[in-house]
Amino acid sequence: MQGRNVNTKRGFRQMLIPTIIMGVLAIALTVLVYFRGDGEYIQGLKSAGNLLLQIAPLLVFAFIIAGMIQFLVPTEMISKWVGAESGWRGILIGTVVGGFLPGGPYVSLPIAVGLLQAGAGIGTMVALLTGWSLLAFSRLPLEVGIIGWKFTLVRLACTFFFPPIAGFIANRLFSNVDIV
């Protein structure tokens, strides 16, 4: 339990600077729009509130999933299958899981953090997020319908090998770095 407390304190410190930067930007942009006149800042704040209402439930559930992953899957299993010592197997698992991971960054990033905190390797998580970003198998029907199957196949052929390569590079260069 003590180790999880340390991770929570470190996570808070890591998020403090980005939170301050985002707060300063939000205030500066609101002031900028306020001085443009016409009450547009009210519309901007309403738009932000609507977006918050739409995204907040998804964020809450994604964070719950990320938190539960750490306690649901035994650390030994995570280490064996996707930990730093899992090697290529973990990188390929991360690539495939990332390709099938649904949703946007509000879903995938908390899950990746949860897995990292539970013992997943840096290479596996780099492969997972790269696979999620580049492969996005859940997006394929829409892509085929709008752009066409030929382009989709060309895109997949050109990007398919990047997630494992990125995971391998991360393992080689950053496996000794304490990320979370």
Keyphrases for this structure?
single chain, 180 residues, mainly alpha, 9 helices, 0% strand, disordered N terminus
Distance between the termini: 16 Å
Strand content: under 5%
Give helix and strand order, one letter per element, not per position. HHHHHHHHH
The total beta strand count reads: 0
The helical percent reads over 70%
Structural class: mainly alpha
Low-confidence stretches: 1-6
- What's the mean pLDDT score? 87
Largest sheet: none
Tell the overall outline. globular
Computed over alpha carbons, the radius of gyration is: 20 Å
Question: What is the helix tally?
Answer: 9
Could you write a compact summary of the structure shown?
By secondary structure, the protein is mainly alpha-helical. It is built from 9 helices and no strands. It has a domain at 57-173.
Task: Walk me through this protein's architecture.
With 180 residues, the chain is mainly alpha-helical. It has a domain at 57-173. Helix content is 82%, strand content 0%. Helix 4 crosses helix 9. The protein is globular, with a radius of gyration of 20 Å.
